[in-house]
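2 proteins. here.
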Amino acid sequence: MDERGYAGNGGIEGPRRGAAPHRGPRNVLTVAAVAIVAIPVLVLGGCVYSCAFVPSSPLDQPMSVSMVLDAHPGEVPANAEWRDTIAEADSAAEGGQDVLVVEDYPDSGEALVVQPSGSPKCPAIRMDKYVYEEGRYAVTGFWGASQAQPGKRTSPIEPLYDYTTAEVAANSLSSCLSMDSHVAFGVSMDPSVHDLTIGGVSPTWVREIDLDGEACYVWCYEDMDVRAMFYAAGMDASDFTLREVIDGLDIRVGDEAPY
């Protein structure tokens, strides 16, 4: 007897005397028919189950942010793409993808930019480092890249987890840990971000911008040391959760529940 002894001939003993002919193939067809019916039922049942029981929040999943900086002021790569505007230089550095410059900080050689990331519902925002020489711009690196997250799906039958605006803001603040800067920023598809407060303080500004026909909202604190706030709240940048960020930094969006 080998591992295949249970299939094709009715069992390891073989067909019994007097059994109807072609019973094996008929059994195979029966099993196939059951499988054809059962698989969609299981998938549908799994979807119903997953839709009825929303997956647990990612609030308590461990997160960490590397302190390695991907921008070195003054260093210009040999293959730098020089262009007439910051947006053109950034687009060239990103392989031709369009970007929108929301704010320029020429004194520090930085520009806050927004870029579509496959869908207008998930724009990415980051601070670019650039150099300006002889009337032309070149991007030398970036820091603090983050994006709005309306939901994530880990399997086809698992429902989307809808992030609150406070959770999106907390994720953006975590991204801002990547550089020791006093500028904190984020982007949201929710207009209620106008009511965002961190530690009871409102953003320096909130701007509505059009991105591929969709309105998104960029918020910015121009005098906020996120890393110092993390340390003051007792959080380790190499091991924290979004819940700790929301609670430790007191992130609120109006009267909405933060999570």
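next one coming up
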Amino acid sequence: MPEHAAFEPPLTFVPWNEEAAEAALAAGEGRPLRGSAAHGSPAHRWMLSRGFRQVNRYRTLRLPREPIPVAGHGCSMEWHERTADAPDDVLQAWLDFQDARGRRLHVVEKETVEGLRARCSSWYSPFAVARRDGGTVAGVALLDDVLCGDDLEVDGGPVDPADPEGDTLVAALLSLCYAKLPGCTFYMELGDEDGERVRAFVESVATAVDFDNVICERPGPRS
């Protein structure tokens, strides 16, 4: 991924009643605009009718209470109780996971393992890790603070979103989460950048869709 030497200001977010949205559109003339709305909502249709292009769709999918069966993943699995205590290659895999999905584009400088370890020193958020033969971290998942309750977000999957075993890897990571935290309810937020195999697998086991939002953008005249 390229280095990001300078911070790029975020695009304008368009508010969601039509009068205010039209005013924001007029005020933002000459610069790129971005809006977020529920999929299929009037706000979504409004953006598409005003020259916006859908660039991503994010859904929060709730997973079943019982463990998800997984077989034949061929990986060794690890569990690291605290984020900052994970090995360097696990933290690097987490940074690579985010970079591959464009989640850290607007940063002053590219974060290092040392910077991440310092930033998350107070987190009690475990890592689930899948290693292939030879020790390469193929999949990684970070859970939100497990001390806050039993309704936990699992953010992770294959390090490479194009991994042909992405569905198997995410199943193995989730299986480890169920084993380590029995009785918890898990959910995942997935976007278009997470890869077709991962999205299809999580959709197949999910019990509900909590949120279904789209991101739409309209370029400025010089974009």
